[in-house]
Each structure stands twice: as structure tokens, then as C-alpha cells.
Design a protein that fits this description.
- This protein is mainly α.
- Helices cover 82% and strands 0% of the residues.
- The protein is globular.
- The N terminus is likely disordered.
Length: 364
């Protein structure tokens, strides 16, 4: 939705918010580095010995599983866009999925940063605003619902087999509740027409009040009506294609399955063969810790929680710690660095830029 006439006061407020976000990000990074240093303190020699005997073939296998996981996120998004009648090339949807997902991990904003980036990149590809919101929110809701199921079954394992690890259980309960609080209302909002109509009108009214306060301009009513029509039409398409929706959920399940396999490969890299129950318990504690605000991707807390869980299962702490670091390298750092190049490619391939580049050639 376009709004014109932004005032100097609005620009100043946006600049202040950006400075605040940067300060919070810096604080989060410093806290994470401090936590990692504290965890390794006193065990540097043991950790170094484990690091000297890492089997790097398994680390590359973990990287491969991680990239496969991100590809499944793209497949799910692509399937949803096809259902909604706005199919993009697989290269585009895989790239958008990669950069938006890594943004969620590196910028601690409860998923808002990744959602906003996904919506922005889709809009640049001329996907209507209503379809953009529908695809972005539905893909996020399905992702969180499947993750909630994974954390739920891992929590059951923790409660049955690890009664003494109260902190890990509390983390998992917190993570499960956060995911359900986010995902369930989104599902209800999108599939309950009456509630959706009331909420979209209320949100439109609030958005207009905020917009007017900063810019003395309002979002045109016809843009809201077009958005509401696109939203309703898109959801009807999704509800009417059970096969496509099932495929989307299936891709999301494969995504989390490959993510867990990446963790399993990281443990194989330090010579540990994890049983499925152990893998589920440790993965649950780690994913719950990533939901902690401020810390980027839960850095520091994830490593400590997962190492503690695996130690309680009889695995040497230093081996568990190195394995988790390798997993973080494979699933977070490598794809995150790669996504910077992918984002640049996505920006350079936006239709508007390509058309502008083609104009001089046509004129010549």
C-alpha cells in the first residue's frame, strides 16, 4: 500500500527506531559472545582435543542437509504461490525462502524480520499485496505449527526420560507456548471469514490513524478493498486445493526433518551416533532456546542448553558442545553468508530493474 507525503517528523521517528534496533542487535551479539566464552571457559583443552579429530566429511553432509532444509522452505512457499495463482520461478522462491529464513535467525524479532523481507521481495516481483500477505503468513504459520509438533513430541521425551533437567523442560514448554500463541491465531484469522473481516477493518483503521499522524496522508480506501478481495480469493483457492496444501505441509515436515538430520551429522563428525530419542530431545531444547528475544538465533543459550541435555544422556560435554557448534556452522553461518549473495542476486533481478536496464538498449 503506497502512502505519500511523509513528514520530517515521521522520518526522524523511523531513524530513531533504526538506531534502537541496531543498538539491540549489537547488545544481543555481545551477550551471545560472552555466553559462548563463559561456556568454553575452563574446558578449552578438552574442546580443542575434540576439534582436532573432527570428521569433516560429516560436516559437509550437515551443510548439505541444511541447504536441503532451506530448499524445502522454498518448495513450500512455491507451492503456496502456485495455489494462489502467482507462480514464480523455482530459483526465485528458493532464494526468497533462504534469505527470509536466515534473516529470522540472525535478527531476533520473533519472525517479523523474515516475514517483512519475504513480503518485500514478493512485492518487488509484482505479486499483489493481498497474495503476498496470504503466502507469507500461511507459510510462516505452517512452519510454526510443524515445529510446535516437533517440540511437543520432544518435550514428551524429555518429561519421560529426563525428569531432572527442569530448565530444559521449562525452555521447551516456553517455546511450545510461544509457537502456539503465534501459529494458532494466524490459522484462525485466515480460515474464519467473519473474524478476518472484522480484524482487517480494525487493522486498516489503526494503520490509517498512524499514517495520518506522521504524514497527514491516508491509505486510499480502494487499496484496502483490493487487498481484502485478494486475501479472500487467495484463501478460497488454498481451501479448495487439498492436494496442494498437503504438499505444502509435507515440504515443511521435510524441512524440519533435514534440519534434525543436519544435527545428527554434526554429532557423527565428532564420533557420536545419536539415537532418535536423544536427537529429538536435544533438538527440542535447542529450537526452544532460539525463541529467546535479543540473542541472535539464541546464540550462547542454544549451545549451553543442548550440551547440557546431551551430557545428561551420557555424552561427554565437550563432544556435545563441539557438535552443536558444527551444527550451528552448517545450518546458520554457511547458509547465512550464502544468503547475502542470493539477496544481491534477487535485488538485481527485480523486474523493474531489468526493464530499466533494457530501455537504453531499445532506444539505441
Amino acid at each position: 500500500m503506497s502512502v505519500t507525503g511523509r513528514s520530517p517528523a515521521g522520518r526522524a521517528a523511523n531513524a530513531a527506531r533504526r538506531r534502537k534496533r541496531r543498538a539491540l542487535m549489537l547488545l544481543g551479539v555481545l551477550l551471545s559472545v560472552g555466553l559462548l566464552a563463559y561456556l568454553a571457559m575452563g574446558r578449552v583443552a578438552q574442546v580443542r582435543r575434540v576439534g582436532d579429530h573432527v570428521h569433516w566429511v560429516w560436516v559437509w553432509a550437515a551443510v548439505g542437509c541444511s541447504l536441503g532444509s532451506y530448499a524445502m522452505v522454498g518448495m513450500a512457499l512455491g507451492e503456496l504461490l502456485t495455489l494462489l495463482g502467482y507462480a514464480l520461478s523455482w530459483g526465485e522462491v528458493l532464494g526468497i525462502a533462504l534469505v527470509s529464513t536466515t534473516a529470522n535467525y540472525f535478527v531476533s524479532s520473533g519472525g517479523v524480520s523474515g516475514f517483512a523481507l519475504k513480503a518485500h521481495l514478493l512485492r518487488k516481483r509484482r505479486v499483489p499485496y493481498g497474495i503476498t500477505v496470504t503466502a507469507s503468513v500461511l507459510s510462516s504459520a505452517i512452519l510454526y505449527m510443524v515445529l510446535a509438533a516437533v517440540i511437543g513430541q520432544g518435550l514428551i521425551y524429555l518429561m519421560l526420560h529426563l525428569g531432572g533437567t527442569k530448565i530444559a523442560i521449562m525452555e521447551s514448554v516456553f517455546g511450545l507456548l510461544v509457537l502456539l500463541v503465534v501459529a494458532v491465531p494466524l490459522m484462525v484469522f485466515f480460515f474464519n471469514a467473519r473474524l478476518r473481516g472484522r480484524l482487517t477493518k480494525t487493522l486498516f483503521h489503526w494503520a490509517n490513524r498512524v499514517t495520518y499522524a506522521f504524514s497527514r496522508a491516508e491509505i486510499p480506501r480502494e487499496e484496502f478493498e483490493a487487498f481484502e478481495l485478494q486475501l479472500a480469493d487467495g484463501l478460497e483457492r488454498v481451501r479448495g486445493d487439498i492436494r496442494g496444501l498437503t504438499l505444502t505441509v509435507g515440504y515443511t515436515c521435510c524441512d524440519w526433518g533435514l534440519c534434525m538430520t543436519s544435527l545428527w551429522c554434526a554429532f557423527r563428525a565428532v564420533g557420536i551416533h545419536l539415537p532418535v530419542g536423544y536427537l529429538s530431545a536435544g533438538f527440542t531444547a535447542g529450537m526452544a532456546a532460539t525463541l529467546i528475544p535479543i540473542l541472535p538465533g539464541g546464540l550462547g543459550v542454544v549451545e549451553g542448553s543442548m550440551a547440557a541435555i546431551f551430557q545428561s544422556l551420557g555424552i561427554a560435554w565437550e563432544k556435545a558442545f563441539v557438535a552443536v557448534l558444527l551444527y550451528r556452522l552448517a545450518y546458520y553461518l554457511v547458509p547465512g553468508l550464502f544468503s547475502v549473495l542470493v539477496l544481491w542476486g534477487l535485488k538485481m533481478s527485480e523486474p523493474a530493474l531489468l526493464e530499466d536496464a533494457a530501455v537504453p538498449e531499445n532506444q539505441g
